[in-house]
Amino acid sequence: MELKSGEAGLMDREEIQNMRRSYSERELNLPSDPIAAFKIWLKEAADYPAIVEANAMVLSTNGDEITSRSVLLKDVSETGFTFFTNYNSRKAHAIELNPQVSLLFPWYPMERQVIVLGTAEKISREESEKYFATRPWASKIGAWASQQSAPLNSREELDSRFQGAAAKWPEGSEVPTPPNWGGYLVSPYSIEFWQGRTSRLHDRIRFERTITESNSGNPANPPFGEWEINRYYP
Question: pTM for the complete prediction?
Answer without folding.
Answer: 0.86
